[in-house]
């Protein structure tokens, strides 16, 4: 009598890493189709609408890129910290601080030309957001205070601070109803690419991806971050400073998320601070980094696909399908991908039925060491 | 030692003529394979009441598998376990426990937040009661253990937790006690106490099995020994009259390396000097250590565990600052082989090749200021894997996938290949099989012969006697004795470690 048993893979094969997420996405759409059928909607039409609104058409793809930009930056921000085992849950607040910092700089550099002002506000936004993240990094580095909690709560402070600014000192008194900040100078608008609605923000995000890939995977610093993230005691043993690495990583993480805030400010936001500017991208960024397993190349792909899913989901609603169903489809795809990832690290093995799997197969089988 | 000989003689007499030893357990033809590889092949094991049986074998010889089969954790592919003539089929450790087989695992499975008595009754069909407490106290007293049933398990030492485990099994009525490498975590003194207790249990008619790869223990404490090699039984014989070196050969087979001959080192200029070194508090402290390690010598550090050896190693390696006193080294490169390999020396989530590059990744040729050079890192790793026989054919795998011996080789390869001037090794061969351990010792001697000053902390006295040009003994955070090669023997070291008597004065 023989049975089946799950066994942990020592290293998932490349094929399984590529095939398995594709299968997961398909499974998600199949599940979505079932939900659509139950709701009495036309499955073909619904998916056609999603496709046309995302990759299927030029304008659709533009929308995807617009959404992918902040998503990519936030995914990168979370990834940078996660490589060192630091959880930055605060990208949302750091986006807000980035936008605030950029606005502050823009208000004080109105006389500059377009390029200098853009450089100045991007720098200002990145530095502001990086410093904001340091508020969580410093107690973490000094006394080990949990950065997850601190970064999370800093989000509320940052978003409420933004709200206070646009309802107070930076309020645009011409705005009626919803509160807005005063408009930025027109030179501060991010240029568009050709005739599209996409700003050059996507290039900034891609450049950030390349830079972070270099830092994490190709540089000495990245190697040492991996050591420090993998085993603090080993890092100390090798004489690597932990505290300053925590500060560095969270500053960088915050700064990258801040860039997303500046792009949202100078592009789709119409050049002024407003509530909802961060749009939840900071939180979705955590999901993006997690789905990409902190691999920078994968973050780029996942951000793009997730942006398509968001865009397609919005388009679904215009066909009369309730937004809740669009969200169910989104969520089910994510869940199937996660299931796929979890299962992907195991393989099915045919075996004699064992009551309990071997706890230490290595020791039991024995390697001649 | 004297007590052992006595009790053994008594046991043998009793077994030979007096009481009729009932056969308690007989396993026949046990075969168990994983992925087509035999971990146990046609293994027979006979245990008798009143006898201490040692299971001897290298890492991976199949000892743990055999125990797992006996205690119902694994189901054998074939073979049968009989107790008192009755065939048993265990489908879980619970079944085995009910049949009287109790196992003390290497990793003690206890709930540290619970008290001793709570851990004992946990899983039995009744709760904590005065009667239960009394019974636990009695069992403990009978074995010479001093365990307060109300103590929190988290505050016990490893040795005491092992005692608790034995009490727990006896409380549940185990007649056959199996201990998986019980002494791996014990200091020599604690081991002696454990074996005394086991002897008392055997005298009560219990059958005892312990796993070990320390020959001395086997010859001193066991009545019978079964030697496993590559999953098969290669010997099953009484310990009396057995020659330890013969057992060693049986255990490792013909591929055993001849014992390493260590020529005395040529001590040169001082490499490390400690004066009145103090740090830490309580049992984890140095309370004024004076020590000089010279170029080209191996200084061994002996002592009952918890007398400051860990701290001394860390201070010597420069990983820990002194509170008071003075430390200076003249080493350009210090190598440190820490006691807990995976916890301190390695990063489990990184690959074997990355771990091998930890000392070099930040300079040429492994990297330029801008880029790591993967091919150089890989080349370096492959060179070390070859030179130090790291057991892997996929250096890209996570280092955590290696066995204990493999992990130790990775650290040693990385540290020794830096041509250190000062080498600090803490328990360098703990948990390694004979062949691996010999390899490690050879590397330490080779480092010394290249001019390194070596400080070796070990609980294996034979190892220290074998390797060291000088042995210092630590007690209470101080060095209480320093003995030259040839001057030291086990008995002297043992006395100085425990602070009993002066040399020449009978302890």
Describe this entry's structure for a reader.
The complex is a heterodimer of chains A (369) and B (507). Helices cover 69% and strands 3% of the residues of chain A. Chain A is mostly helical and 369 residues long. In chain A, strands 1-2 form a two-stranded antiparallel ribbon. In chain A, α7 (201-218) runs antiparallel to α12. Chain A is globular. With 507 residues, chain B is an alpha/beta fold. Chain B has helices at residues 2-16, 63-70, 93-98, 116-121, 130-143, 158-171, 188-203, 215-221, 244-252, 309-316, 341-345, 352-356, 374-387, 404-416, 434-449, 461-467, 490-498, and strands at 23-34, 37-48, 52-56, 78-83, 86-88, 101-104, 176-179, 207-212, 224-229, 232-238, 270-281, 284-294, 298-302, 324-329, 334-337, 422-426, 453-457, 470-475, 478-484. Chain B has a six-stranded mixed sheet, with helices on both faces. In chain B, α5 (130-143) packs across α6 (158-171) and α14 packs parallel to α15 (434-449). Chain B is globular, with a radius of gyration of 24 Å. Chain B starts with a helix and ends in a 9-residue tail after the last helix. Residues 1-20 and 501-507 of chain B have low confidence and may be disordered.
- What's the arrangement of strands in the largest beta sheet of chain A? 1-2
Gross morphology of chain A is globular
First-to-last CA distance of chain A:
34 Å
Class by helix and strand content of chain A? mainly alpha
What number is the mean pLDDT of chain B? 84
In what range is the share of β-strand residues of chain A?
under 5%
How much beta of chain B, percentage-wise?
Answer: 15-25%
Q: Which whole number gives the mean pLDDT of chain A?
A: 87
Calculate Rg of chain B over CA atoms. Answer: 24 Å
Distinct helical segment count of chain A: 14
State the end-to-end distance of chain B: 13 Å
């Amino acid at each position: 009598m023989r049975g089946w048993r799950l066994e942990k893979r020592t290293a998932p094969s490349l094929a399984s890493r590529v095939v398995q997420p594709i299968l997961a996405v398909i499974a998600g759409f199949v599940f979505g189709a079932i939900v659509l059928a139950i709701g009495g909607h036309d499955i073909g039409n619904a998916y056609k609408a999603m496709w046309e609104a995302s990759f299927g058409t030029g304008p659709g793809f533009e929308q995807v890129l617009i959404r992918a930009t902040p998503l990519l930056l936030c995914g990168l921000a979370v990834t940078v910290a996660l490589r060192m085992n630091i959880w930055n849950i605060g990208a949302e607040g750091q986006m807000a601080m980035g936008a605030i910092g950029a606005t502050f700089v823009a208000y004080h550099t109105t006389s500059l030309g377009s390029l200098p002002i853009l450089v100045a506000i991007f720098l200002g936004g990145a530095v502001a957001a990086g410093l904001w993240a340091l508020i969580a990094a410093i107690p973490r580095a000094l006394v080990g205070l949990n950065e997850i909690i601190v970064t999370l709560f800093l989000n509320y402070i940052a978003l409420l601070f933004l709200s206070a600014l646009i309802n107070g000192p930076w309020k645009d008194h011409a705005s009626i109803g919803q509160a807005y900040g005063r408009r930025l100078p027109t030179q501060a608008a991010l240029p568009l690419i050709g005739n599209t609605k996409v700003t050059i923000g996507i290039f900034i995000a891609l450049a950030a991806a390349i830079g972070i890939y270099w830092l994490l995977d190709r540089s000495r610093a990245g190697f040492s971050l991996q050591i420090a993230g993998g085993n603090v005691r080993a890092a100390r043993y090798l004489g690597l400073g932990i505290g300053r690495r925590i500060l560095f990583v969270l500053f960088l993480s915050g700064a990258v998320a801040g860039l997303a805030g500046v792009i949202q400010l100078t592009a789709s936001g119409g050049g002024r601070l407003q509530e909802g500017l961060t749009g939840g991208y900071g939180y979705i960024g955590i999901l993006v980094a997690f789905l990409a397993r902190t691999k920078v190349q994968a973050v780029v792909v996942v951000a793009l696909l997730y942006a398509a899913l968001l865009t397609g989901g919005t388009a679904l609603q215009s066909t009369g399908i309730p937004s809740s169903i669009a969200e169910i489809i989104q969520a089910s795809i994510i869940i199937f991908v996660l299931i796929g990832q979890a299962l992907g690290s195991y393989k099915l093995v045919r075996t004699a039925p064992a009551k309990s799997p071997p706890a230490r197969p290595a020791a039991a089988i024995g390697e001649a060491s | 030692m004297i007590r052992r000989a006595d009790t053994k003689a008594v046991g043998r007499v009793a077994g030979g003529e007096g009481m009729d030893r009932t056969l308690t357990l007989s396993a026949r033809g046990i075969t168990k394979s994983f992925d087509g590889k035999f971990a146990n092949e046609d293994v027979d094991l006979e245990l008798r009441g009143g006898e201490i049986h040692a299971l001897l074998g290298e890492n991976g010889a199949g000892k743990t598998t055999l125990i797992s089969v006996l205690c119902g954790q694994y189901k054998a592919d074939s073979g049968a376990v009989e107790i008192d003539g009755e065939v048993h089929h265990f489908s879980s450790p619970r079944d085995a426990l009910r049949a009287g087989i109790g196992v003390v695992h290497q990793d003690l499975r206890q709930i540290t937040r619970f008290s001793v008595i709570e851990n004992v009754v946990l899983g039995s069909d009744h709760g904590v009661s005065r009667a239960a407490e009394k019974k636990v106290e009695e069992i403990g007293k009978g074995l010479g253990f001093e365990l307060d049933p109300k103590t929190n398990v988290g505050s016990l030492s490893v040795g005491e937790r092992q005692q608790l485990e034995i009490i727990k099994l006896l409380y549940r009525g185990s007649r056959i006690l199996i201990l998986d490498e019980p002494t791996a975590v014990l200091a020599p003194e604690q081991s002696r106490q454990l074996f005394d207790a086991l002897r008392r249990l055997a005298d009560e008619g219990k059958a005892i099995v312990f796993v070990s790869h320390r020959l001395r223990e086997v010859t001193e404490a066991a009545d019978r020994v079964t030697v496993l090699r590559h999953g098969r039984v290669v010997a099953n014989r009484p310990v009396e009259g057995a020659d330890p070196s013969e057992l060693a050969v049986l255990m490792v087979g013909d591929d055993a390396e001849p014992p390493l001959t260590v020529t005395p080192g040529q001590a040169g200029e001082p490499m490390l000097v400690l004066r009145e070194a103090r740090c830490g508090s309580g049992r984890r402290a140095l309370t004024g250590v004076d020590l000089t390690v010279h170029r080209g010598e191996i200084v061994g550090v002996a002592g009952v565990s918890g007398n400051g050896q860990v701290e001394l190693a860390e201070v010597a390696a420069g990983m820990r600052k002194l509170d008071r006193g003075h430390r200076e080294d003249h080493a350009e490169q210090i190598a440190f082989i820490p006691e807990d390999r995976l916890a301190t020396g390695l990063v489990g989530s990184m690959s074997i090749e990355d771990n091998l590059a930890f000392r070099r990744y930040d300079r040429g040729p492994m990297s330029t200021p801008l880029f790591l050079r993967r091919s150089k890192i890989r080349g370096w790793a492959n060179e070390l894997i070859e030179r130090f026989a790291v057991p892997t054919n996929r250096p890209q795998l996570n280092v955590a996938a290696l066995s204990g011996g493999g992990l130790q080789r990775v650290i040693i390869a990385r540290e020794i290949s830096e041509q250190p001037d000062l080498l600090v090794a803490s328990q360098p061969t703990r948990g390694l099989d004979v062949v691996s351990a010999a390899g490690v010792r050879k590397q330490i001697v080779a480092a010394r012969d290249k001019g390194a000053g070596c400080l070796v902390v070990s609980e294996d006295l034979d190892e220290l006697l074998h390797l060291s040009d000088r042995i210092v003994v630590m007690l209470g955070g101080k060095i209480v004795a320093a003995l030259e090669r040839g001057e030291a023997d086990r008995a002297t070291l043992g006395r100085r470690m425990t602070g009993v008597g002066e040399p020449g004065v009978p302890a």
